[in-house]
Amino acid sequence: MDDSLHYNESLILSELERRFYLYLIGGDYEKLFYTFDAGQGNNDLDDEQLNMSRIRLEVEVSQQDRLQKARENYADPEYKGILDYMLKSRINNKLEKQDDLFASCPELRDLQPILKSFGEHQEFDQALLKDINQIPWLSAQIKRFSQNPEYQNLLGLKSKGDTNEILSKLGYQLFVWLLPRFISEVLHAKMHPSLRDLVGRLRQYGRFTSGAIAKLVVRANIQQKDKWMIYMLAGISVVPLFLIINMVNAEINSLIAQQKEALLQEEHVDKNKLDVLDNYVFSSDAMREFLCLEEILKPHILEDLGFEHFDPMPYLLGYADQDSPLANVFFQARAYALYRQLFKTGRIHPHETAIFLRKHKIDKTLLHQLNEFDLTSIATHINLFQSMLAFHQKG
């Protein structure tokens, strides 16, 4: 591949990552269209002749138009702008002190004893069960999961039982696989209404990643003890984004509460300002700026998580040996998850698909195999996990 094609490939990969962040924040977005040399290439995934002569930027919805539209939707646009500025300043101040990321998410801090032991256990012991039972929200999530009739049928769970009985039936490996889902449900429930769609899209991204792992892991030449462990990578990979969103959520709730209290103490309550607070939506452009800090914050967050028996950094930071089957499975699964979310929303075009999938060594056969499953369904995931685990045990 010549230098110009390397440049074009890097440009397209960077643009697709930009569109993914735009997809996460939702709403209107900008599209970047490429102009290719006429007659060079087609839509075939195996084509390596695509070349780009120039780039043309066509803005579908400009930032100025988005800001103007947002102002028109509020009873007091000036007050909304002041709130946006105050929130952005407060969040930037928090991000400068990286320890505050964990301070805003006590649920993740609760899980640290469990995460520290990851990679050490193959099954539950009394110490681990004690750690789990000491986390009220986690015990509640486990019981709630066990009361779902569909999951009861798939896993042979009883409608009633204490946490230890449920965990015994699930097994340690499936519990680890479900752990990111448990915490994401709790975080989703406590989010400010304007952030719930964003968290929902991020949870779906995690499902696509872990589902693709289940399909890819049986094809890879990985040691048996590692086959199920990489599921944790799917969950850990979205932790930095969840922490950023959670910090934004904490600051939104705090500022709105403070502003309401001050307004209600005034002799003449400004109803327009109260309306702004009741219907507040954080600036999508500011949200995107914070989400793009993920790669900068990720090393510090992973270090703070404190894994003692498993090092996720080589995989999540992208410097693992590319010849490692474990790394290849995770990188391919993450690439497929990004592709699926861009494809279903029309944010990736055929020529971009060809370059993106070829870059991550996902051929047509593998793509069709991954596409045949509804990876948004937890029941599908459980079936995939059971198939993968059966393969693991047989192997």
Provide structural commentary.
This protein is mainly alpha-helical and 395 residues long. It has one domain. It is built from 22 helices and 2 strands. It has helices spanning 3-25, 63-72, 77-96, 100-103, 106-110, 112-116, 126-133, 136-146, 149-155, 163-170, 172-189, 196-217, 231-236, 239-264, 271-278, 284-291, 294-305, 313-316, 325-344, 350-359, 364-371, 378-394; strands at residues 31-36, 52-58. It is globular and about 70 Å long.
What is this structure's SSE topology?
Layout: H1 3-25, E1 31-36, E2 52-58, H2 63-72, H3 77-96, H4 100-103, H5 106-110, H6 112-116, H7 126-133, H8 136-146, H9 149-155, H10 163-170, H11 172-189, H12 196-217, H13 231-236, H14 239-264, H15 271-278, H16 284-291, H17 294-305, H18 313-316, H19 325-344, H20 350-359, H21 364-371, H22 378-394
Antiparallel strand pairs: 1-2
**Contiguous helical run count:** 22
Helix/strand/pairing category: mainly alpha
Mean pLDDT across residues? 80
Beta-strand percentage range: under 5%
Helix-residue proportion: 55-70%
What's the order of the H and E elements?
HEEHHHHHHHHHHHHHHHHHHHHH
Count of DSSP E strands? 2
| Uncertain stretches of 5 or more adjacent residues | 33-59, 391-395
Q: What spatial form do the alpha-carbon principal axes imply?
A: globular
Rounded Rg:
23 Å
Largest sheet: 2 strands, antiparallel
Give the strand order, joined by hyphens, for the main sheet. 1-2
